[in-house]
């Protein structure tokens, strides 16, 4: 028995081959044919070809309806200047469990360096309150907005996506269940040779992914090139979930988190002059990054490449490898935020006399342990600067010859022990919750000295005091009298005009 292929005859309920209804020649308007085919509720097969549409096409309300293409490079929807920009979207999901698989969408843009002059097409794919939507093996190029999942879109799956849009590539909000996102590449696939369009693409405005309420974002591999990745309250709540791998490529690729709870197993950030932050956590949010690698290849001084700002804003970074040049301030915590860095290695590649620290506590709290600064090119300055004494923990770090600047009266924080600090002159050397201050100078001709210690209520907090002077052969000889009197330390019993050292330990 032989089988004979028929173009038009179909078994009832079998998929519709769209070329039986539409021209699919890339120039004829196929909108009506697509809507007629979708209205049947049957699956639609889109073989290799280019199908031009000029208005929204809508799935039926039949659960599980599918559009299946031959592949995202071969089955292409063509969107051009004839498209109705007032439409709510290009492809409208209409029911639970519907799928869009193996197709591409190519949007025409006029070469322009002015963002406002771009064609602002509507959302390419929109699913409004339809759970279990599947969008897989889809390429969207030169769009304005890409994929919109809103309302209860839980149990949806987005997989093997390549999107190069100018505004928002993916927007998720309202999911009351898990949304899975994997193998997502936000990239300008077809227009990197157009310098004008690339200048708009790289202007720091576009968003690769923005997530509001999502009751378990389960994401695998995400790469954003010159695009923001945002987490926060978009109107229906905040997200929580996990991302296995996040790449932030290019100077305007960054994480902005203003709400929710997200864990990143691994992330990297690279590219461009350091003119803006790479990670910013604000508001009532918590971001944990288990492993982070960043490369700062520009010397420009930013606000801070990693910024934690706002009450109850928490950022925890473990195993951070950061390479940088110039006088960049890499981390700041401010306005009641919480920054924790565990096991970070900071590699200064050039010889810079720093005017600002690598890690700066402005306000809020800092916990930093197991970190080290490696100055390959030399340089000098402060590794850590503590502006306001608080319950900080800065201990077990290797400062590599750079400094730790802390307030003179450290009554709350734990600032040691740390290794690799510059040799102390006058100032504080701190061990756990006991602070040790070191004073040096020359005794008066009578073998005595009075030193202003500038420690509030030292007489009630003093643990120990050690005072020595250097004898004729530079040996250290204990002073016979060393006491605290009001705001001063009083010394006597030394050599006539010898150099003294005093260590005062206090709580």
Structure description:
- The protein has 507 residues and is mainly beta.
- The chain has 3 domains: 12-271, Pectate Lyase C-like (3 Solenoid); 278-422; 437-506.
- It contains 3 helices and 42 strands.
- The protein has a 34-stranded parallel beta sheet that branches. A 5-stranded antiparallel beta sheet has the order 35-36-42-38-39.
- The relative contact order is 0.05.
Summarize the structure.
The chain folds into 3 domains: 12-271, Pectate Lyase C-like (3 Solenoid); 278-422; 437-506. Helices cover 4% and strands 48% of the residues. The model is unreliable at 1-6 and 425-433 (pLDDT under 50).
Number of extended strands: 42
Based on the structure given, which CATH architecture of the largest domain is correct? 3 Solenoid
Helix segment tally: 3
Shape verdict: elongated
Indicate how many domains the architecture comprises: 3
> In CATH terms, what is the fold-level topology of the largest domain?
Pectate Lyase C-like
Distance between the termini: 96 Å
- The CATH class of the largest domain turns out to be Mainly Beta
Helical amount: under 10%
Low-confidence segments, given as residue ranges, are 1-6, 425-433
State the major sheet: 34 strands, parallel
- Overall mean pLDDT stands at 89
Whole-angstrom Rg = 32 Å
CATH superfamily of the largest domain, by name, is: Single-stranded right-handed beta-helix, Pectin lyase-like
Portion in beta strands: over 45%
Query: Structural class from helices and strands?
Result: mainly beta
């Amino acid at each position: 028995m032989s089988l004979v292929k028929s173009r038009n005859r179909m078994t009832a309920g079998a998929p519709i081959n769209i070329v039986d209804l539409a021209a699919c020649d890339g120039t004829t308007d196929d909108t009506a044919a697509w809507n007629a085919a979708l209205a049947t509720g049957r699956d639609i097969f889109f073989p290799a070809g280019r199908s031009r549409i000029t208005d929204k096409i809508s799935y039926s309300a039949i659960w599980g309806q599918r559009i299946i293409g031959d592949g995202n490079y071969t089955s292409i929807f063509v969107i051009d200047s004839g498209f109705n920009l007032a439409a709510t979207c290009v492809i409208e999901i209409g029911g639970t469990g519907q799928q869009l698989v193996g197709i591409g969408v190519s949007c025409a843009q006029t070469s322009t360096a002015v963002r406002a002059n771009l064609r602002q097409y509507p959302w390419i794919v929109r699913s409004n309150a339809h759970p279990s939507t599947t969008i897989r093996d889809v390429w969207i190029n030169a769009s304005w907005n890409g994929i919109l999942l809103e309302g209860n879109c839980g149990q949806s799956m987005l997989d093997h996506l390549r999107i190069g849009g100018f505004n928002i590539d993916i927007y998720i909000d309202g999911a009351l269940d898990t949304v899975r996102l994997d193998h997502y590449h936000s990239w300008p696939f077809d227009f990197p040779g157009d310098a004008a369009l690339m200048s708009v693409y790289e202007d720091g405005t576009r968003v690769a992914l923005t997530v509001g309420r999502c009751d378990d974002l389960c994401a695998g591999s995400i790469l954003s090139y010159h695009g923001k990745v945002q987490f926060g309250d978009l109107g229906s709540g905040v997200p929580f979930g996990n991302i296995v791998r996040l790449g932030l490529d290019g100077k305007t690729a960054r994480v902005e988190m203003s709400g929710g709870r997200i864990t990143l197993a691994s992330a990297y950030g690279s590219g461009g002059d350091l003119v803006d932050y790479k990670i910013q956590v604000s508001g009532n949010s918590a971001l944990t990054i288990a492993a982070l690698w960043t490369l700062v290849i520009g010397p420009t001084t930013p606000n801070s490449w990693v910024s934690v700002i706002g009450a109850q804003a928490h950022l925890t970074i473990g195993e951070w490898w950061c390479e940088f040049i110039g006088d960049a301030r890499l981390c700041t915590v401010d306005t009641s935020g919480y920054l924790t860095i565990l096991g970070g290695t900071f590699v200064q590649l050039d010889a810079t006399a720093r005017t600002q620290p690598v890690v700066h506590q402005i306000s809020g709290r800092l916990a930093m342990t197991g970190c080290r600064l490696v100055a390959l090119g030399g340089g000098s300055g402060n590794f850590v600067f503590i502006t306001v004494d608080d319950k900080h923990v800065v201990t077990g770090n290797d400062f590599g010859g750079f400094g730790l600047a802390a307030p003179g009266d450290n009554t709350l924080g734990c600032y040691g022990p740390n290794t690799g600090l510059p040799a102390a002159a006058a100032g504080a050397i701190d061990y756990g919750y006991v602070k040790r201050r070191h004073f040096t100078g020359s005794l008066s001709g009578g073998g005595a000295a009075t030193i202003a210690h500038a420690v509030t209520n030292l007489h009630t907090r003093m643990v120990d005091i050690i005072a020595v002077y250097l004898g004729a052969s530079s040996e250290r000889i204990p002073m016979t009298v060393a006491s605290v009197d009001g705001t001063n330390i009083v010394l006597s019993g030394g050599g006539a005009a010898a150099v003294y050292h005093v260590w005062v330990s206090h709580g």
